């Protein structure tokens, strides 16, 4: 069990270190690695499911794709209108842990990404995740900006223990071309209704 936790901690550290390095969609050269087996979660448990779409207030729905890690970085969908569900995070309906979604704030050409709407998120906003006939509502409970370098240590974001929650990540602030991205990540935490 200790080695599983150590491996998970190492994965989280690598993931956070590479998370949304630029937050702008760019062509991706590496193919995502196949998802790892998820211990303790039955594949046929219909109460737990992978989200396929998200709806933010005033934005309509957007598709959610599986976002794997490649060389320690979360591979967010290239299309800025899509959101990525981290395959190392909780399933919707799990009794614990973070359902982690990440999305681009804009494209390399400057077109707004779906998660740009998170810049206007307010406490109490309703977010809905869905897949087939499944639906789960969440209410925004926390909105904060985290320096990209500090995200690695944020247990609320990547932790898979504690109360179930939805954690949405994107970039915020000014784009720094010299640094190759944004220096801050926006973290929006929502609790199930």
From TrEMBL:
<keyword id="KW-0732">Signal</keyword>
<dbReference type="Pfam" id="PF04203">
    <property type="entry name" value="Sortase"/>
</dbReference>
<feature type="signal peptide">
    <location>
        <begin position="1"/>
        <end position="21"/>
    </location>
</feature>
<dbReference type="GO" id="GO:0016787">
    <property type="term" value="F:hydrolase activity"/>
</dbReference>
<dbReference type="InterPro" id="IPR023365">
    <property type="entry name" value="Sortase_dom-sf"/>
</dbReference>
<dbReference type="InterPro" id="IPR042001">
    <property type="entry name" value="Sortase_F"/>
</dbReference>
<protein>
    <recommendedName>
        <fullName>Class F sortase</fullName>
    </recommendedName>
</protein>
<keyword id="KW-0378">Hydrolase</keyword>
<dbReference type="InterPro" id="IPR005754">
    <property type="entry name" value="Sortase"/>
</dbReference>
């Amino acid at each position: 069990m200790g080695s599983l936790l150590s491996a998970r901690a190492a994965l989280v550290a690598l993931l956070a270190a590479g998370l949304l390095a630029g937050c702008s969609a760019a062509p991706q050269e590496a193919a995502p690695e196949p998802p790892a087996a998820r211990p303790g979660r039955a594949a046929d448990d219909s109460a737990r499911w992978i989200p396929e779409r998200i709806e933010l207030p005033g934005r309509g729905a957007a598709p959610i794709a599986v976002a794997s890690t490649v060389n320690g970085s979360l591979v967010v969908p290239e299309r800025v209108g899509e959101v990525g569900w981290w395959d190392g995070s909780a399933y919707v309906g799990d009794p614990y842990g973070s359902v982690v979604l990440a999305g681009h704030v804009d494209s390399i050409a400057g077109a707004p990404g779906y998660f740009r709407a998170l810049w206007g998120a307010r406490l109490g906003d309703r977010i809905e995740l869905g897949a087939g006939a499944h639906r789960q509502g969440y209410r925004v409970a926390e909105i904060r900006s985290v320096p990209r370098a500090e995200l690695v240590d944020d247990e609320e974001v990547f932790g898979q223990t504690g109360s179930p929650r939805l954690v949405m990540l994107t970039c915020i602030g000014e784009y720094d071309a010299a640094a190759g991205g944004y220096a801050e990540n926006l973290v929006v935490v929502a609790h199930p209704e």
